Amino acid sequence: ITLVCKARGLPKPSVSWTRAGDKLSHWLASMGRVSTSNGNVTITQAEPNDAGMYLCTARNLLGVASARSTLYFKGMFHPFDVITLLSSNVEVTCPVRGFPLPSITWLKDGQPLKQSMTVKVNNLTGTLYLLSILERRAGLYMCVATNSLGAATATTTLNVLHYDSLSHALTIGDNLNTLISTSVSIHCNATGNPVPSITWSRSGALIEPSKRIKIMGSTLVIVGTLWSDTGSYECVASNGAGTDRKSSFLKFVRK
């Protein structure tokens, strides 16, 4: 960015620049991104922090003249996602940097977000606070920043995770006594959001499906049971919110 100062006169005036009351020469030494040439100022790799009022002053033996130039920046945003657990508190920042300072509003799923006991917005920073998160708070949030130069937006997807612990007992019960050469199904009652992934193990070893052993969704099916199938069967349910596990002991009896 180059700020131009056109100064003419006899004798030829000298030109100096100040920003927020500081001489630009001091600023140049501290930043290393500002250069002057023929009375003009060039700022390389301009940043929002460079915004502000710049004053050009021209002097010669006959007097002094000055002119002001204001450097503005629009808000700058980067979309991101937020993942949280049910009933927790969430703080969502709107990464606003601009001059003049933008005002902030929030939308959820395209509709204005109303403040309440559990929805708060810091009027100074624009930060959104969601307290005691409910599942219905999940959705697409949009931060809208507006100043005299226009508006900029950023979107945030809020995912609310929850999971129900596995039931105290698998569907068949903690323990099952049955006969060999039968079919046994063990249902793992695991629910959650996102839907948990389920793995099965027997006596600590991961179960791989085979001709006799099938994994159908959340149910383990053993066809044509053998004495060697005796053992503790464990269901492990996992999602982004955590992991839970339950087990049943399968034992065979003679007729």
TrEMBL record:
<dbReference type="Pfam" id="PF07679">
    <property type="entry name" value="I-set"/>
</dbReference>
<feature type="domain" description="Ig-like">
    <location>
        <begin position="1"/>
        <end position="72"/>
    </location>
</feature>
<dbReference type="InterPro" id="IPR013098">
    <property type="entry name" value="Ig_I-set"/>
</dbReference>
<keyword id="KW-0393">Immunoglobulin domain</keyword>
<protein>
    <recommendedName>
        <fullName>Ig-like domain-containing protein</fullName>
    </recommendedName>
</protein>
<dbReference type="InterPro" id="IPR050958">
    <property type="entry name" value="Cell_Adh-Cytoskel_Orgn"/>
</dbReference>
<dbReference type="InterPro" id="IPR007110">
    <property type="entry name" value="Ig-like_dom"/>
</dbReference>
<feature type="domain" description="Ig-like">
    <location>
        <begin position="87"/>
        <end position="159"/>
    </location>
</feature>
<dbReference type="InterPro" id="IPR003599">
    <property type="entry name" value="Ig_sub"/>
</dbReference>
<keyword id="KW-1015">Disulfide bond</keyword>
<feature type="domain" description="Ig-like">
    <location>
        <begin position="173"/>
        <end position="251"/>
    </location>
</feature>
<dbReference type="InterPro" id="IPR036179">
    <property type="entry name" value="Ig-like_dom_sf"/>
</dbReference>
<dbReference type="Pfam" id="PF13927">
    <property type="entry name" value="Ig_3"/>
</dbReference>
<dbReference type="InterPro" id="IPR003598">
    <property type="entry name" value="Ig_sub2"/>
</dbReference>
<dbReference type="InterPro" id="IPR013783">
    <property type="entry name" value="Ig-like_fold"/>
</dbReference>
